Amino acid sequence: MARKDICGNIPLLILLLFALSFGERIKDIASIEGNRINYLQGYGLVVGLRGTGDGKATQFTVKSLANALQKMGIVVDPNRITVRNVAAVFVTAKVPPYAKAGMRFDVSVSSIGDAKSLEGGTLLLTPLRGPDGKIYALAQGQLIVGGYEARGRGARQVKNIPTVGRIPNGAILERDLPFDMNVSEVNITLDIPDFTSAKLVQDAINKRFGEGTAMAIDSATVKVRIPPGMNPVDFLAQVENLEVSTSQVAKVVIDGRSGTIVLGGNVKISPVAVAVGSLVVKVKEMPEVSQPPPLSGGKTKVVPRTEITVEEEKRRLVPLRGSTVQELVDSLNKIGATPREIISVLQAIKEAGALKAKLEVL
Predict the structure, then answer these.
(1) How does 182-218 read in b/e, with b if 16+ C-beta sit within 10 Å?
(2) Within a 10 A sphere around the Cβ of 123, how many other Cβ atoms?
(3) Around Cβ 247, how many Cβ atoms within 10 Å?
(4) Cα–Cα distance between 240 and 32 in angstroms, integer?
(5) Distances 56 to 83, 113, 115 between C-alpha atoms, Å
(6) Most CB atoms within 10 A, among 143, 146, 199, 279?
């Protein structure tokens, strides 16, 4: 449901997450060791821009261009380079798990200098390195930019972000990512650490493959032993599709900047009464001119006159019986409070000990 704050014109969005207890696959709430995204990054040059590249003040772009030309046998004095069709960029990529040499993937290209736009540019051959400093892939190609910038002498218009682009399948993996599947045990890591969920995952695996196959190490990790003689891929495929019943933590998340409130499905409150009132004070200056009678010898003066009015909105004390999320939201709507007031009400209910949930303010 959406409401609008008539005081601050801030939209209110209340999201209800009705998720008490249901079956979820292990693959949806956890990840298996090694089965994760890998990140690569590199530094490169984008050429072919229409005068929207880095200026001469961006020294690293000028030196990088001079070094690139020198590798091709062309020696140029960096101090004499004044081109505006080149931009220095960082190239980032996410490589899928177990990627093999020859696999292609997308790359993102972001300007790091004072370039105005990367539209129409081409990324020169750029090595992409992993956290260990080794080169794993090479990137190159024509950029696709989702924004633009148009400017004249007296006007300028920008849409989206023209200094960030993307190259579909712009990188190719040159070496396999290090990972060995010939192991006797693996770790399963929960996306949201929780002792109850870890215990449920352990019990589900042991019920399917026998006692002792899985053991919860802590709230986030379950160590799983691969049965002897069983193919690790077949075993893990069965493990990640096992269903477990998890319970959601009762939580209320508030984003005061956007007026968004997210309530979990198992949020409850004890009976409590709330009254939200507004006090409006208006001060109006109405100066008057005092004009003396003719020939009286008096002087004309401006006499200050201030009018103060106080308006207090009358609201009843409304009981909140939020045994369910829907009842809680309905009670809040009956108060007729603005988004800022609803946020304050939730914080006050938490302080009073009536809100049976964790309150998180972003």
Answers:
(1) eeeebebbbeeebeebbebbbebbeeebeeebbebee
(2) 26
(3) 14
(4) 8
(5) 8, 10, 11
(6) 143
First to last CA, the chain: 21
Contact between 317 and 275 under an 8 Å Cβ cutoff? The reply is yes
Torsion angle of the four alpha carbons 160, 163, 164, 168, in this order, in degrees rounded to the nearest 10: 110
Question: Is the predicted pLDDT of residue 255 greater than 70, yes or no?
Answer: yes
Cα 232 from chain centre = 35
Query: Which one-letter DSSP state was computed for residue 331?
Result: H
Nearest to 125 by CA among 49, 68, 85: 68
Give Cα 18 distance to the centre of its chain.
22
Return the bridge partners of 303, or none.
288
Domains and CATH numbers, the chain: 2-19+251-279+314-361 (no CATH), 38-173 (no CATH), 181-247 (3.30.70)
